[in-house]
Amino acid sequence: MRPNKPAQVVAAASPAGPAPAGASDRGFVDVVFVSGASQLVRRVPIGPRSTVAEAIDASGLLREHAASVVGGHGLSSFGRRVQPATRIRAGDRVEILLPLAMSPKEARRQLAAKRAGKKRG
């Protein structure tokens, strides 16, 4: 079992500075990128009609880790698949999903074969 590593949280700089207290038209979302055993989280400012694509672009995570997403990527918010044009609200979590290394069916087959080998030996 792989030990859990704490998330590395990096706050992205906002060109406009922090939102003024009580401003209802601005908020923040967390954009998450998981690569191997590490998880990067960037908190980025958003406007009232921001989209998933705008939040990801503001985070800079795809630009920094372009080599990791060569095979494409999916997007989700709180575990539900979303499209780049999906509108987001303050407090949302946007996840950048990498392709699976192997299908869940194949992983179960390999695990079953490994367990069967241990019982014989």
Explain what you see.
A hairpin with a 2-residue loop joins strand 4 and strand 5 (80-81). This protein has helices at 52-59, 61-64, 104-120; strands at 8-11, 27-35, 38-46, 74-77, 80-81, 93-97. It contains 3 helices and 6 strands. The protein is α/β, with parallel strands linked by helices and 121 residues long. It has a 6-stranded mixed beta sheet with strand order 1-3-2-6-4-5, covered by helices on one side. It has a single domain, classed as Beta-grasp domain (Ubiquitin-like (UB roll)), CATH 3.10.20. The two termini are 22 Å apart. The relative contact order is 0.18. The longest helix has 17 residues, at 104-120.
Quick recap of the structure?
The chain has 121 residues and is α/β, with parallel strands linked by helices. The chain has helices at residues 52-59, 61-64, 104-120, and strands spanning 8-11, 27-35, 38-46, 74-77, 80-81, 93-97.
How helix-rich are the residues, as a percent range?
Answer: 10-25%
**CATH architect. name:** Roll
Distance N terminus to C terminus?
Answer: 22 Å
Rg value? 19 Å
Sheet with the most strands: spatial strand order = 1-3-2-6-4-5
Q: Strand portion, in percent?
A: 25-35%
Low-confidence stretches: 1-24
Annotation keywords:
single chain; Ubiquitin-like (UB roll); disordered N terminus
What topology emerges from the helices and strands here?
Blueprint: E1 8-11, E2 27-35, E3 38-46, H1 52-59, H2 61-64, E4 74-77, E5 80-81, E6 93-97, H3 104-120
Parallel strand pairs: 1-3, 2-6
Antiparallel strand pairs: 2-3, 4-5, 4-6
